[in-house]
Design a protein that fits this description.
- 35% of the residues lie in helices and 21% in strands.
- The mean pLDDT is 82.
- The chain folds into two domains: 53 residues, no CATH class; 131 residues, Nucleotidyltransferase, domain 5 (2-Layer Sandwich).
- Helix 1 packs across helix 2 and helix 4 runs parallel beside helix 5.
- Strands 3-2-1-4-5 form a five-stranded mixed sheet.
- The protein is extended, with a radius of gyration of 22 Å.
- The chain is an alpha/beta fold and 197 residues long.
Amino acid sequence: MVCWKPPEGRARWTVRLIVEEAVKRKLVPKAGRETIRVLLQSHDLKPWREMWCVAELDQQYIQKMEDVLAVYEKPYDAAEPVVCMDEKPLALHADVRSPTPAKPGKPAKPCGTANVFGVVEPKTGRHFTTATPDRSGTEFARMVGHVVKEYRFAKTIHLVVDNLNSHSRNSLINYYGEQEGGYLLGSVNRPLHPKAR
């Protein structure tokens, strides 16, 4: 419910509005604001901010999702592995006191951020991670190069990645140049994920 636009005349969702709408739509017979607040907090949801949600399931979205699912359903073939790659930004912290066993609430000094790429081949369970300074197009291109080297005997690598703007042909060409970037692009089949909103 909160992934859709708020009711007409409302600019955003509030806890009170969620309670009213849940009762009005007969999702629950009654609910308190505190119950909704705790529920949202436990799932780390903040519908009063812009959320990632699928705005509309149009034919194009459904077709792209079916294309991605078809790649996942492919039977295992070492010559054409299905490999998934995603990244996660991390906050780096340093101890403010000499190291002691970890305890909740122990103070830490912020030391910037980093990124971790995770690569998984679901059919075999093979996986590896690589830490990078950020999740820029350069780091994405390097990681694609690393994946191609790891699967150097594959004819085609079906690489499933999300639609982050740095996950592009330009990132590979800008980092490796036209010739090597083109070779990497020829080694990788990338099913396109549908875009949300």
